[in-house]
Write a structure and sequence with these properties.
By secondary structure, the protein is of the alpha/beta class. Helices cover about 40% and strands about 10% of the residues. The protein contains 6 helices and 6 strands. The strands form 2 sheets. Strands 3-4-5-6 form a 4-stranded parallel beta sheet, covered by helices on one side. Helix 5 packs parallel to helix 6. The radius of gyration is 21 Å and the shape is elongated.
């Protein structure tokens, strides 16, 4: 880590991995053309070492391989503070999300003061421009007015799946 902090990255497209998903790491290598940092000369492993590790992980079911057809494209928008963000900007973001993703996440501080009228206007924009399944999470601004339950209901009534420590599964 000290080396990475004190030396600029090389121009090489080397996948250094991810903390979240080994499957994502392999997709980066196999589909996006990154070199595997585990292999010599960058790393200490050989192709045989990696094949052995991969076969062991697949056998035990601990590391499923993600194929390109299983990739889910997710768009995330956070800290909108609607209506501070202009309507035309929000419209453009929701339209772009619909065109480029299959799921939209609205992540915290969706409204500026947690007022029901702000939530109503945001909900209408989502109904009009977000044509993909949409999930949301309230942020601290929604609690300022003490009307967070009403804000949540307005967004749910608009078809937004509001999460609060929940899990959502879709097909």
């Amino acid at each position: 880590l000290q080396h990475e902090v004190h030396h600029p990255p090389s121009g090489d497209r080397i996948c250094q991995g991810t903390l979240l998903s080994r499957a994502q790491y392999l997709v980066d290598i196999e589909c996006w053309g990154y070199r595997d940092a585990r292999l010599r000369p960058t790393g200490l492993m050989t192709g045989a070492d990696i094949a052995h590790m991969d076969s062991r992980n697949l056998r035990t079911g601990t590391s499923p391989m993600t194929t390109p057809k299983e990739i889910v494209r997710v768009a995330a928008l956070g800290d909108l503070h609607y209506p501070k963000i202009p309507q035309e900007v929000l419209q453009g973001l929701l339209t772009q999300a619909t065109e480029q993703a299959v799921v939209l996440l609205l992540c915290g501080d969706l409204t500026d003061y947690g007022q029901p009228d702000e939530a109503q206007r945001l909900a209408q924009a989502c109904i009009t421009y977000a044509k993909i399944p949409t999930l949301g999470v309230l942020g601290n601004h929604h609690y300022q007015s003490g009307q967070h339950e009403e804000v949540r209901k307005i967004l749910c009534d608009a078809g937004i799946i509001m999460l609060d420590g929940d899990v959502c599964e879709g097909r």
